[in-house]
Specification:
- The chain has two domains: 217 residues, P-loop containing nucleotide triphosphate hydrolases (Rossmann fold), CATH 3.40.50.300; 167 residues, Nucleotidyltransferase, domain 5 (2-Layer Sandwich), CATH 3.30.420.280.
- Helices cover 31% and strands 24% of the residues.
- The strands form three sheets. It has an eight-stranded mixed sheet, sandwiched between helices. It has a seven-stranded mixed sheet with strand order 9-15-12-11-10-13-14, sandwiched between helices.
- A hairpin with a 7-residue loop joins strand 10 and strand 11.
């Protein structure tokens, strides 16, 4: 048998020694893009499962279905990176990763199914560690406490219990900042990192960050430097995140109407789909579904709409791409049309949406992200009469989808910041 030597210092890189060695009850890691926070956490989990017989881990995301293309794929990458593929087995039904020599497991759960967390058990050893990826999406502190409670109880040495959270720090008003960063807590280890500690990125990545710093300093502070986002100047404060049943709404409110908007993206920006129910009389807008994905071809967009059951709906798309609209229509999405837009359409659309109470279903995590970050531009400390061109890949299709309601007498479209 050939022995393979893997040096962690070379595989993991620099900037994370204290994080790696921490045995605190909580490890909360905030950072910008390409800061190695998720890759380092996945490497840590794989290495320590092998190091500590009897230890099992739970990986948590707000929505369970988001695991497969994120944390599950990330952990499989870590296994390859550590060159231990022969020691691990990965399955999708159920979604789990198993260390074959001992049967220890890494399990995956979503906060959209609380019962799957509160009733969790492991066959071999103890449930020692939990990792919250996209920790920022956990808007309800009680959901975190529920998982925290499931990772308690006595375990034999040298095992230890620990909860790790990794996130971009989008908004300084978040409960995570108040709980872990604004007070001294000896049970918590906190760390902020950014792309400058990532020796594995290339010159193209560095150039992207440099351009972001020049063009959008506010976004650069969060996505580049991993600093807490500032809530000042947010466009929307008329929304809440709340569970609801769209079928019950449709049955109980005969006058409620559906609205669908589509924004095109490809390499740099995602294609965004906003699916809404609009109650003009109550001035309430319910966002019940979304799609948010880069690199989609037009036939893939059509397939997505069919898969979700929206092929027969009236979908208002960005009229800047009439060729794409015609192509998607040729794939059987017969009722797709271009948005009217027109002079001041962005600001008028924003003002229209600001007159609603907007209720966002918790599954629409990208909508929540955008509403928490879509802000007015500022110059010399003064807010301008226009929004930033960022965090709008759901916001824009919300405007498109609601265009036909904007002449309703219940609403005014006078624009004010």
């Amino acid at each position: 048998m050939t022995e393979t030597i893997v040096r962690l210092s070379e595989v993991v890189g620099k900037g994370y020694k204290d994080f790696w060695m921490s045995r605190n009850r909580y490890r909360i890691l905030i950072g910008g893009r390409a800061s190695k926070k998720s890759t380092t956490t996945s490497l840590w989990l794989i290495e320590n499962i092998m190091k500590y017989p009897g230890a099992n881990a739970l990986v948590v995301r707000k929505i369970y279905k988001d695991h497969k293309d994120s944390t599950y794929a990330q952990l499989k990458w870590a296994i390859r990176r550590l060159k231990v593929e022969h020691l691990w087995e990965s399955t999708t039904h159920p979604l789990e990763v198993t260390y074959k020599p001992t049967g220890q497991k890494i399990l995956f759960r979503g906060l959209d199914d609380p019962q799957s967390i509160t009733s969790i058990t492991v066959e071999i050893g103890y449930l020692c560690w939990a990792w919250f990826e996209e920790f920022y999406q956990v808007s309800n502190e009680q959901d975190f406490d529920m998982v925290d409670g499931s990772i308690r109880g006595a375990i034999p040495a040298p095992l230890f219990k620990q909860i790790t959270g990794t996130m971009n720090p989008w908004n300084e008003k978040h409960w995570i900042k108040k709980r872990f960063f604004d007070v001294v807590d000896e049970t918590a280890f906190t760390l902020r990192t950014d792309y400058t500690c990532n020796e594995f990125i290339d010159d193209a990545d560095r150039q992207w960050f440099d351009e972001l710093r020049k063009k959008n300093p506010r976004r650069y502070r969060v996505e580049g430097l991993g600093e807490w986002g500032v809530a000042e100047g947010l466009v929307f404060d008329n929304w809440e995140e709340r569970e609801f049943d769209k079928d019950v709404l449709i049955k109980s409110r005969p006058h409620i109407e559906s609205a669908f908007g589509l924004d095109f993206g490809y390499t740099a920006d995602p294609t965004g789909l906003a699916c809404m129910l609009v109650d003009i009389k109550a001035k309430e807008l319910y966002l019940f579904d979304e799609h948010y994905q880069k690199g989609m071809l037009n036939n893939e967009i059509a397939d997505m709409l069919k898969y979700k059951g929206y092929a027969k709906e009236r979908i208002v798309a960005d009229s800047a791409e009439p060729k794409s609209i015609d192509e998607i229509k040729s794939y059987g999405i017969d009722r797709i049309v271009g948005a009217r837009k027109g002079k001041d359409s962005i600001m008028n659309g924003i003002q229209f949406l600001r007159q609603f109470k907007i209720i966002v279903h918790p599954r629409c995590t990208n909508t929540v992200l955008e509403l928490n970050n879509y802000a007015f531009e500022s110059k010399d400390g003064q807010l301008m009469n226009s929004p930033i061109d960022a965090y709008n890949h759901i916001i824009d299709p919300m405007r498109y989808g609601c265009e036909r309601f904007m002449n309703s007498p219940e609403f005014s479209i006078l624009f004010e910041v």
